[in-house]
Amino acid sequence: MTRAETLLWRHLKAKRLVGLRFRRQTPMGNYIADFVSHSCKLVVEVDGESHDLEERLRHDARRDQWLVSRGYRVLRFTNDDVLNNLEGVVIAIGLAAEQAAPLSLTLPRKGGGNPSANASLTDADDIQEDKP
């Protein structure tokens, strides 16, 4: 891992970022994601200078397209972004994770409006029979 990836990993590991679990250097299909949180389907890539080459850019685009086709959102940062603005990178990841996180549904309290077993879900007056 690069210095920038190591620095970012310190903020992502152990559920320190909005309570999400991230994994690093995770195989996904034929690719390896720098960091991924499967629970909110978020991939974070930290790219160095080698990613400026045309061939590498095409490879990254294919990987991103493959990940997106499987429902993942891909965030890309450069080493310079992480080294010079770590707080901004962490905030951006946190916001993306919160936007992508599934809604938490809570069950109603006991007696909280669930119909009884005998109750009809429709009013009898609303049902119209087809008559020939």
Structural class of the secondary structure composition? alpha+beta
Helix content: 25-40%
Q: Can you tell me the residue ranges where pLDDT is under 50 for at least 5 consecutive residues?
A: 114-132
Run of helices and strands? HEEEHEHH
Radius of gyration in whole Å, from Cα?
23 Å
User: What value does the average pLDDT take?
Assistant: 80
CATH topology call: Endonuclease, Chain A
How far the N terminus sits from the C terminus, by CA atoms, comes to 75 Å
The overall number of domains is 1
List its salient traits:
four-stranded mixed sheet; globular; Endonuclease, Chain A; disordered C terminus; 132 residues; alpha+beta
Task: Describe the protein's architecture and organization.
With 132 residues, the chain is an alpha+beta fold. The chain has a single domain (3-100), classed as Endonuclease, Chain A, CATH 3.40.960. Helix content is 36%, strand content 19%. The protein is built from 4 helices and 4 strands, in the order αβββαβαα. It has a 4-stranded mixed beta sheet with strand order 1-2-3-4, sandwiched between helices. The longest helix is centred in the middle third of the chain and has 16 residues, at 54-69. The chain is globular, with a radius of gyration of 23 Å. The termini are far apart.
